[in-house]
Amino acid sequence: MKVIFLGSGCWQGIPAPFGCDKISQNVEWNSKDFRFRTSLHIETENGKSIIVEATPDIRLQSWKFKLKKPDAILISHWHWDHLFGLLDLDWFVENNALAVYGNSVTKKWYDERMSHVKVSFQTFESYKSFEIDNIRVTPITVNHVKDTDGLLFEDMNSGKKLAYFSDLYEIPAETLDLIENIDAIITDVTYLESNIDDDPTHLQKNQIIPFLESLNAREIILTNIGSYQNLTHENLEKKFPQYTIAYDGMSRQYL
Ligand SMILES: [Zn+2]
User: Fold this and answer.
1) Quick one: three-class SS letters along 211-236?
2) Whole-number pLDDT of residue 195
3) Which of 102, 147, 205, 222 is placed for a possible disulfide with 75 were both Cys, Cβ 3.0 to 4.6 Å?
């Protein structure tokens, strides 16, 4: 499988609205500091296209990265920055031709707010795997808000495994067992270097490094980055050389 990062920004992306901080004031469209909300594109060996998260940036992400219509969209949880991009697809999905996968709470939000977008919603359950082409997908519980899943991807040809955690403050033991020594972990660092410390749904600044050090993977990729970190991509790379700092357009092959 080939993975492209369609977005590496936190819930508000970078730039944040109205140039409210130094990084947002100076960011350029093609720089690594420009970040759509966190999202991935996965291409299977047979050319099937999977988008992870329907962010409110999906229209521009699909344009910037020249994506064709996906075969599936996977959604980790019901928060608006992961789900509300489905509204942009209303005119572009034929009746039930696009499969969208999410848990039952995400399905409820879809049913109540955007069911006029005629996707084929497939409800998944934590720790029950399903297959899309040659990719085995396992929703794996993380603690963020109630009913949040991470996603474990396994290329069934190569056996390579990748775990993706959009938002979290903790990984339960049952999930940790499944991601031990895998090829890559992509994880949330919303508050890596910020002083915002009143949000219990994400790891806080003083908790993130011990958490990252407890993980065991060939590559640990940090995503969900906000302008309130007040560090450019270049400075993040200098400060945390032991980790990969995601940027929009970054790609990896797991063959
Ligand atoms: Zn969230």
Assistant:
1) HHHHCCEEEEEEECECHHHCCCHHHH
2) 66
3) 102
Q: What is the pLDDT of residue 197?
A: 61
What is d(CA 7, CA 214) in angstroms, rounded to the nearest whole number?
25
Give the pLDDT band (50/70/90) at residue 229.
Answer: confident
Distance 44 CA to ligand 1 centre (A): 27
Residue 82: count of CB within 10 angstroms of its CB: 26
Short-list 72, 56, 70, CA closest to 10: 56
In the chain, where the domains are located: 2-253
Residue 98: what pLDDT? 92
Beta strand ranges found along the chain (DSSP E): 2-7, 39-43, 49-52, 72-74, 99-102, 120-123, 130-132, 135-142, 148-155, 161-164, 182-188, 217-223, 244-245, 251-253
Query: How remote is the CA of residue 159 from the centroid of ligand 1, in Å?
Result: 29
Name the phi and psi angles at 130, rounded to 5: -140, 165
Confidence of residue 198 (pLDDT cuts 50, 70, 90): confident
Q: Give the distance (Å) from ligand 1 centre to CA of residue 70.
A: 23
Q: And the tokens for 14?
A: 């970078």
Query: Ligand 1 being an ion, which residues bring their Cβ within 5 A of it?
Result: 79, 167
